[in-house]
Design goal:
This protein is mostly helical and 454 residues long. The chain has 2 domains: 201 residues, Clc chloride channel (Orthogonal Bundle), CATH 1.10.3080.10; 173 residues, Clc chloride channel (Orthogonal Bundle), CATH 1.10.3080.10. Helices cover 68% and strands 2% of the residues. It has a two-stranded parallel sheet with strand order 1-2. Strands 3-4 form a two-stranded antiparallel ribbon. Helix 3 runs parallel beside helix 5, helix 5 packs antiparallel against helix 6 and helix 9 runs parallel beside helix 12. The longest helix has 50 residues. The protein is globular and about 65 Å long. The protein starts with a helix and ends with a helix.
Length: 454
């Protein structure tokens, strides 16, 4: 009888918990879907207005100055958005100031509409998390429930900005920790992401979908090339992360008032645009679509976009980082395809998701993204490349506040539980490990050649 009562009590509590989070996630997802629609609509209008005048980008010094000035009102709106949300969850119990929402929205519009190289997902994720935090304040949630609701905000923002409800939902629960998914937030995260996407769609937002159907018949050779592509995309992810870090260090060394750094960064972007091209400014969606159509772009495009983005985000600009990641992925995929004599559209799609997996340490969300954006045909190959890219990037991330919860190799010594910006990886001298045995055999062969070779 006692056991029966306990079971009934447990099931009742679980039912109430499920009902509670279904209601909360639906409400928050609806709000975020509506606000994301407003942001995306304003962005489309602003970008279209800027493109009507070919020399609008000359105003970039002023744009970054104004963006940096606006961020003074809410310092957490600085940079690429999602990073600050991760930091808020890990360090501040999910508490996000209400002022972040309008400041982030306006500062990002100013940056992107004039031509700053940044993305649109960071603002939506931060705006979504900010709205969730406000709702948590109104309902007087404790820290644990606040965190869960803020994570729902990340998922809803990502889902509604790219039109990928499943990948967006997984992204919110995967991006906080490297190597761990928060299963206790899965249900509300899915509901918030799906609801947000449906609301944005109903309000008139049209999303990108580009199915990839041109794939060769499976062969060992083609599969090996996909594996090699994963390694290459991991190195591209590493390059992107290190370029962003370099920009951060240079900005820190420049002893100027932050808005004045915007003038310096904006001037540098204008000069770079004259030297190379304006295609590396703004979101870069035209270049991404060009790659996915299988058309040629400059081979060095994936090397230049990180430079433009690093200057924008570290010198006063505000915006996201995922859209530039997509740019680097698509253009590096086109370069790899040209190098290996492969289909450019296919490997642009694989690179699109694989560089996200490596740079953001989200291989599962990136693999699902491949299905939602490019169809099921390319998904198995994209998944393999995503996981390899995730491993090859090492213990790095575009999100410094991510917490490491796994080693990417047992032969690398790192401290679990630390933030990614504080990780120092060293070679672990493990007896019997494959790498160590390889080193021993290499030395034996090397000595034999020296002794007996002619």
């Amino acid at each position: 009888m006692v056991i029966m009562k306990r079971r009934v009590a447990e099931e009742t509590i679980l039912f109430i918990s499920v009902f509670k989070w279904v209601v909360l996630a639906t409400a928050v997802g609806s709000l975020i879907g509506a606000v994301t629609t407003l942001f995306l609509t304003l962005l489309v209008w602003g970008t279209a207005a800027g493109q009507q005048h070919p020399y609008t980008f000359l105003l970039l010094p002023l744009a970054l100055f104004l963006s940096a000035l606006l961020v003074k009102l809410a310092p957490d709106a600085q940079g690429h958005g999602t990073e600050k949300v991760i930091e808020a969850i890990h360090k501040h119990g999910g508490k996000i100031k209400a002022a972040v929402v309008p400041v982030k929205l306006v500062a990002t519009l100013v940056t992107l509409c004039i031509g700053g190289s940044a993305g649109k997902e960071g603002p939506c994720a931060q705006i979504g998390a900010g709205i969730s935090s406000i709702v948590a304040d109104l309902l007087r949630f404790d820290e644990q429930d606040r965190k869960k609701l803020v994570i729902c905000g990340i998922s809803a923002g990502f889902a509604s900005v790219f039109g990928t409800p499943i990948a967006g939902s997984i992204f919110g629960v995967e991006v906080l920790f490297v190597g761990t998914i928060l299963y206790d937030v899965l249900l509300p995260s899915f509901i918030a992401g799906i609801t947000s996407y449906q609301v944005s769609s109903a309000l008139g937002i049209h999303y990108f979908y580009h199915p990839v159907n041109m794939l060769p018949k499976f062969s060992e050779t083609f599969f090996l090339k996909v594996i090699l592509a994963g390694v290459f995309f991991g190195l591209c992810s590493m390059m992107l992360i290190e370029t962003l870090r370099l920009g951060e260090k240079l900005s820190a060394r420049l002893r100027l008032w932050t808005p004045f750094k915007g003038l310096v960064g904006g001037t540098a972007l204008v000069l770079l645009a004259f030297v190379f091209s304006k295609r590396y400014l703004g979101l870069g969606l035209e270049t991404i679509e060009t790659c996915l159509r299988g058309e040629q772009v400059s081979w060095y495009a994936f090397l230049l976009k990180p430079l433009f983005t690093s200057i924008t985000l570290n010198f006063g600009g505000s915006g996201g980082i995922v859209t530039p990641i997509f740019f680097v992925g698509a253009t590096s995929g086109a370069f790899f395809a040209a190098l290996m004599g492969l289909n450019a559209a296919t490997f642009s799609a694989i690179g699109f998701t694989s560089v996200l997996a490596g740079a953001a340490n989200t291989p599962i969300a990136a693999s699902i993204l491949a299905v939602e954006l490019f169809g099921p045909v390319v998904a198995p190959y994209a998944t393999v490349a995503c996981v390899i890219s995730f491993l090859m990037t090492g213990h790095r991330s575009v999100y410094h506040s991510q917490v490491l919860s796994m080693r990417k190799s047992e032969s690398i010594q790192v401290e679990i539980g630390k933030e990614m910006e504080n990780i120092e990886a060293t070679y672990a001298r493990r007896e019997g490990s494959l790498i160590r045995r390889g080193v021993i055999w290499y030395r034996i062969v090397e000595r034999a050649i020296k002794r007996y070779g002619t």
